[in-house]
Amino acid sequence: MRKLIIIAAFILANLAVTAQKAPSGLTVASYNIRYNSPEDGVNVWENRKEWLSHSINFFEIDVVGAQEVTRTQLTDMQNFLPGYQSIGVGRDGGKKGEYSPIFYAKDRFEVLDNSTFWLSETPEKVASKGWDAALPRIVTWAKFQDKNNGNTFYFFNTHFDHRGKEARKNSAILISKKIKEIAGNEPVILTGDFNTAPDAGPHKILIDNQLLDTFSELPSEKKYSPGYTFNSWDVEAGGDRYRIDYIFYKGQALSPQKYQVLDGQRGRKFISDHFPVIVKFGWNNSAAFN
Q1: Helix axis angle, 71-80 relative to 45-58, nearest 10°?
Q2: How many domains does the chain have?
Q3: pLDDT tens-digit map of 124-134
Q4: Is 1 among the domain residues?
Q5: Does a structural domain hold residue 87?
Q6: Which end of the chain, N or C, is more open, meaning fewer C-beta atoms within 10 Å of its C-beta?
Q7: How would you class 178 by CB atoms within 10 Å of its CB: exposed for 0-12, middle for 13-18, buried for 19 or more?
Q8: Residue 220 lies in domain
Q9: 196 falls within a domain
Q10: Does the keyword Translocase apply (predicted)?
Q11: pTM confidence score
C-alpha cells in the first residue's frame, strides 16, 4: 500500500511539472491609439487613456503592438500598465516623434533581442523618410522567450505611411525582407496599421512572402468583428469601411485560435479612432491551449 502511495505521489508530481511546462496560449493585439490631438473633442486623450489601458489589462493581452504613440502617451500607458514593459524609440530618433512601441507582460516574457529600423531606402538611418512617404515610418521588433514554456518568437510592429502609395508598397517589400533576415525560420507575429485594404498590393506582397493574415485563416465562428478597424470617430459608421489594421503570422509553431476587433464605442465616445485587433494564438507543440 505504501508503495502504491509513493508511486501515485510521483505520478502527480510529474503531472504538475508537465502542466507548468505546457505551452500556454498567446494573446496579442494591434492597437493604433490615436496621437494626443487637442482637436479631438470628446475623444481627446485625457478622456480615453484610462479606458484604453484598462482594455489591455482586462483582456489580458500578452504582447501589444501600438501605433501613433507620443512620448506623453507612452508615459501615461506605462503608468496605467505596471505589469507591462515597453520597447521602442521615436520615429525621429530617441524620444522624438511618434513611437510604434511593443508592450509586453514583463513577468511572462524575457527580451532576448530588439531594435528599430526605418521604412526607407536606408533603413538603419535614424529618421529617414522613404519613397513618397509623408513622414518617417518605423518598425520596432523584439525576440521574446516565454518563461512559461521556453518557446521563442519574434514580434514586429509597424505603421505604414498614410499618403505614399509607393511607400506602402516598398515598405511591404522591405519588412518582408527584414523579417527573413532577422527571424529566419523562427515563429513571427507582425502587427500594425498598414493603411491598406485587404485587396490592395501591399497586403498581397506580405502574403506572397509567407505571412498569413489571421482574419483570413479563421472560420467565421472564430471571428468577432464589425468588418472594419478604422472608425474615424464616425458614430454612424458611414462610407466605405474595411480593415487597415492587421495581425499577420509566419511559421508552423503558432496558429490563430480566435480573432476579435474590439469595437469600443460608447455613444459619441470611442476608445480610439481605430478599433484594436486582438488575436489568441495557440502553440502547435501542445494540445492544451489556454
Answers
A1: 40
A2: 1
A3: 999 999 999 99
A4: no
A5: yes
A6: N
A7: middle
A8: 25-283
A9: yes
A10: no
A11: 0.91
